[in-house]
Specification:
The protein has helices at 20-24, 26-29, 33-44, 67-79, and strands at 83-87, 97-100. The chain is α+β, with helices and mostly antiparallel strands. The protein has a single domain (32-109), classed as Arc Repressor Mutant, subunit A (Orthogonal Bundle). Helix 3 packs across helix 4 (67-79).
């Protein structure tokens, strides 16, 4: 591959885009703080091509909140329609994977 065709890496650090319209929406205001944190961390796993296979482990959230709180946040996000579980994981081998399905799921990046 020639040098000109290589993909240029961005010089800015990775970030999660959250639009002001979403922050001001009534749907966002109905989420609990733990659901918001889990949604942002789940959105941070989005790479542009892995929309249906976003994953977030309990170990990644260890210093942020308790495992029971993470579980409750996932269930709340599913119930409110912000995420959808695409693959059920288990304790030992596979991760649960999710898809963003809420009113602001089609945000870039």
């Amino acid at each position: 591959m020639s040098w000109g065709r290589r993909r240029q890496r961005s010089k800015c650090p990775p970030f999660v885009m959250v639009q002001k319209a979403m922050l001001r929406s009534e749907e966002w205001k109905t989420l609990t703080n733990s659901e918001r944190v889990v949604w942002i961390h789940l959105k941070a796993d989005f790479r542009g091509h892995n929309e249906g296979s976003l994953r977030l482990s309990y170990i990644a959230m260890r210093g942020i909140m308790a495992p029971a709180t993470v579980s409750k946040a996932f269930k709340g996000l599913e119930k409110k329609g912000w995420i959808e579980k695409t693959k059920h994981g288990g304790m030992f081998r596979y991760y649960c994977t999710y898809r963003l399905t809420g009113p602001f799921s089609k945000l870039p990046g």
